[in-house]
Amino acid sequence: MRLVVTGTDTGVGKTIVSAALARPGAAYVKPAQTGDDDDAATVAKLSGAEVHTLARYPEPLAPATAARRAGLPPVTPLQVAEFVRTLQNDLVIIEGAGGLLVRFDEAGGTILDVAALLKAPMIVVARAGLGTLNHTALTVEAIKRRGVTCLGIMIGSWPRDPDLAAECNLEDLTQIAPVLGRIREGEFTTMELPA
What are the tens digits of pLDDT across the range 15-31? Predict the structure, then answer.
């Protein structure tokens, strides 16, 4: 199975959700890593999965911008899809950078294009608090408009002391797509793939 993890924004917990879904024997692919973070190393440490990073850029910017500023070639959705197709793992998780429509290249390629090329379903990682309903609805709508399956929503960092907005959003998000679960802030747990 191939599964694409995207987010409503940057810093919403995509890497932790990817690690929670992964397991030894699975493969994790980060098409473009920007800045000093190393999402693949985090996933490997937490899950034991085989990890791959296809491109690295020094500045913490959108991949297309970071590639241009570094004078390095961008990674394209087609390159990502072709690499993923070479993997023989039963489960391959591909994690985007930032939100759904963040550009990989100057042609405007995104993680949504990768999912469409692979005919892979997506999981949307969202925040718990105010603003998440709009961001999540826009993300899920864009996925569905492309004819890609959205398996559901994960909350990437559930607060230790959730406020009223977070509590209400947990229920309201179910009107957008199934809520598959939540990762508690500062904790890590594995999760099963949705059926």
Answer: 999 999 999 999 999 99
